[in-house]
């Protein structure tokens, strides 16, 4: 096991020539499968859904014929026991601090899952590892972990549905959490079940395409996450009339353009990725906010929006853009809007 873990670490270091320079992040692959590290096809390291289609394992509008969004990537095992259960260990991809570990699998569609925050990078991203068969005893809230440290064993745990043995995998995400006031938002939604996961509920997390980041990092198109989000295209821009400075921008100041005005803000112009990440924030003075609408669509890329309708970020109706349900939820979480 130690030999395989060391192999995974060394191959990744060789593949991307990791530098000790502060501008280049240090990141490892989350499993012992060397296929991605060796540049092999996706089929060799991802686990498709029941459809068997490779793209169903990937990030984006990849499920149910493109109608359903998948927040992460599903990585398959290469080792199994005699009963066919997965045995592959799962590793933390960067040094960080454990934010959450769910050990009651029926409490979440993620099953047993772990969330780790990585504050040594900018912006400080989170990584999430779901459907684990077990979690290491040392993985407790607040614990520090090293890059490449084992956090659990790949599996097929899930609440509310069954993952068959042959589809055992780890669902892996990189992303951000949206609001410290998540519980207040959750209580207003009328859910039948209580929020058992605090701030680390999936409703409060927005993921980005981890595999795309890894591929761009390996090919040296980006050095770090700041580079990655700077290069990511803007799908739509909103103008929001609100004097609130969301805790999201306090937590991720790298997404702020310029400084906050000394006299406070009257609103924001926010650039969003197609999947709903508010990735660039421009504070507005009073003269920058006009009209009666609390939220306005300033601009949108019809091609990007039209190619990713499953996310319901911006929807085109009669050729006119409307705020989609996912974006409405994001704005409620960020600004405390109640409708």
Poorly predicted runs are 1-11, 13-22
Query: Mind telling me the CATH class of the largest domain?
Result: Mainly Beta
In whole angstroms, the N-to-C terminal distance is 52 Å
Average pLDDT level: 91
The largest β sheet comes out as: 7 strands, antiparallel
Per CATH, the superfamily of the largest domain is Glucose Permease (Domain IIA)
Structural class: alpha+beta
User: What is the tally of helical segments?
Assistant: 7
Q: How many strands appear in the DSSP assignment?
A: 18
> What overall form do the CA principal axes indicate?
globular
The value of Rg in angstroms is 20 Å
SS strand fraction: 25-35%
Q: Any guess at the CATH architecture of the largest domain? A: Distorted Sandwich
Query: Which fold name corresponds to the CATH topology of the largest domain?
Result: Glucose Permease (Domain IIA)
N-to-C order of helices and strands: HEEEEEEEEEEEHEHHEHEEEHEEH
The residue fraction in helices comes out at 10-25%
């Amino acid at each position: 096991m130690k030999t395989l873990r060391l192999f995974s670490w060394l191959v990744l270091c060789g593949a991307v020539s990791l530098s000790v320079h502060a501008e280049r992040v240090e990141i490892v692959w989350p499993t012992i499968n060397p296929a991605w590290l060796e540049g092999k096809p996706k089929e060799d390291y991802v686990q498709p859904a029941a459809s068997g289609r490779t793209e169903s394992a990937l990030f984006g509008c990849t499920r149910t014929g493109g109608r359903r969004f998948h927040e992460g990537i599903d990585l398959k095992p290469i080792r199994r026991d005699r009963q066919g259960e997965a045995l592959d260990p799962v590793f933390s991809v960067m040094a960080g601090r454990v934010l959450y570990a769910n050990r009651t699998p029926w409490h979440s569609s993620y099953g047993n899952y772990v969330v780790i925050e990585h504050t040594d990078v900018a912006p400080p991203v989170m990584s999430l590892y779901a459907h684990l068969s077990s979690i290491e005893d040392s993985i407790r809230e607040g614990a520090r972990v090293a890059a490449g440290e084992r956090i659990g064993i790949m599996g097929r745990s899930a609440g509310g549905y069954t993952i068959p043995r042959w589809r055992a995998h780890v669902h892996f995400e990189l992303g951000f959490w949206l609001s410290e006031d998540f519980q207040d938002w959750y209580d207003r939604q009328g859910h039948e079940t209580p929020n058992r996961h605090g701030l680390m509920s999936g409703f409060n997390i927005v993921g980005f395409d981890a595999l795309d980041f890894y591929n761009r990092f390996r090919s040296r198109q980006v050095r770090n996450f700041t580079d990655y989000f700077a290069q990511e295209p803007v799908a739509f821009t909103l103008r929001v009339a609100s004097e609130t400075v969301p805790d999201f921008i306090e937590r991720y100041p790298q997404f702020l353009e310029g400084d906050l005005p000394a006299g406070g803000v009257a609103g924001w112009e926010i650039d969003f990725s197609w999947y709903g990440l508010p990735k660039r924030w421009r504070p507005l003075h009073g003269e920058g906010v006009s009209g009666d609408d609390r939220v306005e669509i300033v601009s949108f890329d019809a091609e990007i929006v039209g190619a990713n309708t499953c996310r319901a970020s911006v929807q085109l109706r009669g050729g006119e853009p409307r705020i989609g349900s996912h974006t409405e939820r994001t704005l409620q979480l960020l600004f405390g809007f109640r409708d």
